[in-house]
Every structure is written in structure tokens, then in C-alpha cells.
Design a protein that fits this description.
This protein has two domains: 144 residues, no CATH class; 64 residues, no CATH class. The protein is extended, with a radius of gyration of 28 Å. Helix 4 packs across helix 6. It is mainly α. It contains twelve helices and six strands.
Length: 280
């Protein structure tokens, strides 16, 4: 159990073992895999930083141990300015010792409270070891859930598509042939606030299309989404007329200056984590 590899330097141990003519894997059963991660035969390397990056929902600048301790454990760990460390080690060795132990204590309780139960619970539904469940991305974990369900229902899982080598474009050999998938187009950049009026230029034809389809949209919202028959709604015509009036006002005056309603939806990891949480 470490936080960003802080408490055990496996590369250093490996170098020292080689200097003394020893093989670290033969001695202690730990070696690096093809991704540079150190794995053991009889132990697990559970690094809390992987949970923080994928599952803590903290902003990118708050992944340090101090910030995570404040946000998740609710207390302020011991902090010492780097410039004061050497003088304090001479003048106040006990305080420096408590600072050194503070990181280990924070890592331990972060692991016990959040990482351990969550990761080993996922291991009960995902066919991977704890280290892989901790380190793999949410998309990969969801993919493995689908493979489990496919196996359960006798569906053969196809291999991942591999791009054939030697592809050309206009007579030139391609070093790599990448596919650009869906992307978000930035219509306008800047800082936006809901209390500052913003200029709007709307498309009247879009609002007219909504007005023409108002009955179909309301019927779908009532009968499909809410499970209520349209005939059972007593004030249907009243609500319909109110919506049409608002749409007509937007259609008739498309150039406006109003305070916006701002929604910031970051869907980068939302769907995979919802799937994993619901399945768990």
C-alpha cells in the first residue's frame, strides 16, 4: 500500500540487487511488468494514487496526498515548508518524525476507508486481480463486465480489431493510421457567468419546428417517460399553450440579451462509473 510510490522505491531496490549480483524477483518475488508496474507473486502493490485519479472525482490539481487527506478524511495533515526541514530536523527532531509518520498515517486511513473495500468489491464482479482492477481505466472495466455477461449467455466475444500493416494513402506508406472519433466543438471560448447578460442570436426556424412537434414531444414525455396517459392529464391544453407562448416569444425575437443559465457537465468518466456503481 503506497501513495504514488512514496513509501517503497522498487527501482532503487532492483538497482541495488543488480549491483550485488542478485535477481530481485528470485529474492523477493517482485519485478516490473511491461508497463513498468512492479508486481509480486505473494503480495499486492496497491497504490492509492490510482484510486484518486479515477474514482475520487477530485480536480486534477488536488491529487496530492495533503489535498486528498483534507477532502476525503476531513483533517489537515502535518505540513512543513521544505526550506524549514533541515533546521527543524536539528532543532525539533520529534516534530520532523511526526511529519514523516503523518503521510504514512494518511495513506493508511485513505486506503482502509476508500480504496480497500471498493477495489475488492469490484473484484467480485470483474474477472481481474485487485492490482488490475485498481489500475485499469473505467472503460476497460466496463468492457470486461460485458465480456462476463457475454460468457454467461454463451456469446462468443470477438477479438479486438487490429489495423492491418502496410496501409497507404495516396501512394504513401502510413506510419500510423489513427481514427478521430467524436469530439466536442468549442463554439465560443471565455469565462461565462450566470449573473452577466450575454448576447444571443437564435435560429427562428428551430423554434418553429419545436412548436410544430409540441404534441408529439409532450405525448412522449407523458406516456413513455412518465407512464401517464395523455388523456388523464386535466390541464394538458393549458400547459401546452404556456409552452407554445414561450417558444413563440423566442422565435419572434431571436436577437436577445439575457442572463444565461450555465450547466457544466463533464461526462469524461460519468457513464463508465455509473455502470460500475450500478452493477456493483
Amino acid at each position: 500500500m503506497t501513495y504514488n510510490g512514496d513509501f517503497f522505491d522498487w527501482p532503487f531496490v532492483e538497482r541495488r540487487a543488480l549491483e550485488h549480483g542478485m535477481n530481485m524477483f528470485e529474492e523477493v518475488g517482485v519485478r516490473a511488468n511491461e508497463e513498468g508496474q512492479y508486481r509480486g507473486r505473494v503480495c499486492m502493490h496497491m497504490d492509492c494514487i490510482y484510486w484518486v485519479r479515477r474514482d475520487s472525482y477530485l480536480p486534477a490539481g488536488s491529487h496530492g496526498l495533503k489535498a486528498v487527506t483534507k477532502a476525503k478524511l476531513g483533517y489537515n495533515p502535518v505540513e512543513i515548508d521544505p526550506e524549514d526541514m533541515l533546521p527543524m530536523a536539528v532543532a525539533k527532531p520529534r516534530h520532523m518524525a511526526s511529519y514523516s509518520v503523518s503521510d504514512a498515517v494518511a495513506t493508511y486511513y485513505l486506503y482502509q476507508k476508500y480504496v480497500h473495500n471498493f477495489i475488492f468489491s469490484l473484484c467480485t464482479i470483474i474477472p481481474l486481480g485487485a492490482e488490475d482492477v485498481l489500475r485499469k481505466g473505467s472503460g476497460t472495466l466496463c468492457e470486461l463486465l460485458l465480456m462476463v455477461e457475454a460468457s454467461r449467455h454463451g456469446v462468443i466475444c470477438p477479438n479486438k480489431q487490429v489495423t492491418p500493416r502496410g496501409r497507404t494513402h495516396m501512394g504513401h506508406l502510413l506510419e500510423s493510421d489513427t481514427y478521430i472519433g467524436g469530439h466536442v466543438e468549442c463554439l465560443e471560448s471565455g469565462v461565462f457567468r450566470s449573473d452577466l447578460p450575454t448576447q444571443w442570436r437564435l435560429d427562428p426556424s428551430a423554434f418553429q419546428e419545436l412548436i410544430d412537434r409540441i404534441d408529439a414531444a409532450l405525448t412522449f414525455a407523458l406516456e413513455v417517460e412518465s407512464g401517464v396517459e395523455r388523456a388523464e392529464v386535466a390541464n394538458y391544453e393549458e400547459v401546452r399553450a404556456a409552452i407554445v407562448r414561450k417558444l413563440e416569444a423566442l422565435r419572434d425575437r431571436p436577437v436577445r440579451e439575457e442572463q444565461p443559465t450555465i450547466y457544466h457537465l463533464d461526462v469524461a468518466a460519468m457513464y463508465p462509473n455509473i455502470i460500475l456503481t450500478n452493477r456493483l
